[in-house]
Fold:
Amino acid sequence: MTPIEFTFVFLAISCLAILCISFLIFLFYFIISAVFCPPFHYPYFTYNFDISGKRSPHLEDYIDQFIIDGHFTQIQQHYKEIETWKIKCENKIEKSLLKKYRRKQYLRCIDDSHAFQFTFSRTQTRYRQVNYVRESYQVSQTAYEVSYSYNKLLERKKQLAAIDYERPLREYNSKEQRKLMTKELRTSVMVRDNYTCQICGKYMPDEVGLQIDHIIPVSKGGKTVMSNLQVTCSKCNGHKKANIYPPHAQNSPERKEGHA
Ligand SMILES: [Zn+2]
Structure:
């Protein structure tokens, strides 16, 4: 064997050896990752709220509004998906050769208390210089994150149902009910009551002289919600003042008190 031939054979064998070793390393890595990487991925529910322009938003109000707007079905639907996923995982574990290890991985992956994740992001306009021209572009940044379990959301939903989904819980329980009166709410009450005083029946389509009245006064625990608001003319409202009972209710105890 000439030295050239020898070098050639040596090089060929070295190349083959390197190739074999690489292949073995790859195979080893593949087996290790298949065994040790958890094959389970918890199916989180994610939803993003846009809070652009809101300085200090009350996050729970957004969650309540989400439920009030009828999106609880999405939550229920996802909860069912999680349950189905769990059954599938159980089946997978039963079929697996590494049952104990897989079960450990599965249990580590379950995260029911954070299953429903809500993010709150702000869209900001930024600028950059491109060839001496100012260009604007939008950036969305997550400002807050909150997560709930299904049971916590269900509990919130029940509490909202108890108040007829009229307002987010924090607002409903707020002591400053008067601050909750908005132009939109005022208009909604006007439209619902057809610009008519609910006490004397006077119809005033131009709205002048009409007021929005709390049926149960705020001072007596009345809430600023549609069901507790009515349109009255200023004359009837003046008669009513802080009296729970409308002026035409003859037998109200507070009226008698007032006359005494
Ligand atoms: Zn009236």
The chain has two domains: 39-173, 175-246. Confidence is low (pLDDT under 50) at residues 246-260. The two ends are 131 Å apart (CA to CA).
